[in-house]
Amino acid sequence: MGDSKQGPKLQLLQPVKIGDLDLPNRVVLAPLTRARCTPSKNPLDGKNTIPNDLMAEYYEQRASGGLIITEATAISELGSGWLNAPHIRTKEEVAGWKKVVDRVHKRNGHVFLQLWHMGRQAHSSFHPSTNDSVSASAIKIKGGNAKNIKGENVEWETPRALTVDEIKATVQDYRKAAELCKEAGFDGVEIHSANGYLIDQFLQSSTNKRTDQYGGSQENRIRFLKEVFEAVSKVYPAGRIGFRVSPNGAYGDMGSEDNDEMFRFVAQEMDKYKPAYMHVMDGLGFGYHGKCPVVRVADLKKYFSGPIICNVGLTKGVAEGMLRSGAADLACFGRLYMSNPDLVERFANDWPLEKEAPYETW
């Protein structure tokens, strides 16, 4: 911990338990989509989705954090839509991820993989098998633009609403991906149900206009997330599975008038499974939709008895305050962790921090 008297007193540096894992501190590396797989001439050849040595080094450098959460990782072709971002679908991808896991474990770190399906945010050019994109309902994103497989800016497409049978098949895609995560040696997984991706599209009333068992009521809109969690829990125990939500976020043209009520319900319902944690993006630095009152981690803490990770725009001081207040149990750092791979040691010794990594370096 060094000579600083401040270090050992920091709540950020105190051990914490998630599930059956004893973490040495409460600092978490945020999942950051950096698209650092090795580019290939044919972006559909499956080579530019394999984790490489640069990525293994990146995670190893930050392994002193209590928990490492990997960048979002596509579970299926239809769930993919980000050029040079990793997948977890093939034996080659598993082998690439195993190198990452082994290097983190060599430094006594703990690492979860974030399971990702982009839904309507993925352009159809990434999906040669179907040539379309999907969502909870056929609602097109407004504003901005999509990126196609060539990296070009193109207009957003109107997604096709998944059928019930396709939803069931997608649930199994999550299970299969979890099995591959276990094969690669991951300590657990995080279900990405935030940031306007597929599960979030089911959770929110602005993007889910279904009239079947997956739409309408809160109970119906959470059904997909529950089924995914239950499927993944056939591979990992519930205490090794986290999930992420973003009730305030506008990213992906998201935000609903009932999010304050819906995400309290989500916290309450998911608490019944006793997950490893709930990861809440409650900070407003990622955009605030302004359609309902801001949902804070402290609000959700009343409905969720397990560990809560807070995230978005945190500084050392703000994170420490949130942990000391009891609003959250762990704190996630992204841009600050990019530019300070030894973030835990800098916190412990009260060393100065490098500035947050600028966008062009992400």
How are the elements arranged and paired?
Blueprint: E1 16-18, E2 21-23, E3 27-29, H1 53-61, E4 67-74, H2 91-106, E5 111-116, E6 134-135, E7 146-147, E8 153-154, E9 160-161, H3 164-184, E10 188-192, H4 198-203, H5 218-221, H6 223-232, E11 241-245, H7 259-271, E12 277-281, H8 297-301, E13 308-311, H9 316-325, E14 330-333, H10 335-339, H11 343-349
Parallel strand pairs: 3-4, 3-14, 4-5, 5-10, 6-9, 10-11, 11-12, 12-13, 13-14
Antiparallel strand pairs: 1-2, 7-8
Core attributes:
362 residues
H and E order: EEEHEHEEEEEHEHHHEHEHEHEHH
Major sheet: arrangement of strands: 3-4-5-10-11-12-13-14
Mean pLDDT: 95
- The 3D shape can be described as globular
Q: Could you list the spans in which at least 5 consecutive residues all have pLDDT below 50?
A: 1-7
Number of helices: 11
- Largest sheet descriptor: 8 strands, parallel, barrel
Q: Which class of secondary structure composition applies to the elements?
A: alpha/beta
> What share of the residues lie within helices?
25-40%
- The strand count comes to 14
Share of β-strand residues: 5-15%
Cα gyration radius (Å): 19 Å
End-to-end CA span: 29 Å
Task: Describe the protein.
With 362 residues, this protein is an alpha/beta fold. It has eleven helices and 14 strands. It has an eight-stranded parallel beta barrel with strand order 3-4-5-10-11-12-13-14, surrounded by four helices. The two termini are 29 Å apart. Residues 1-7 have low confidence and may be disordered.
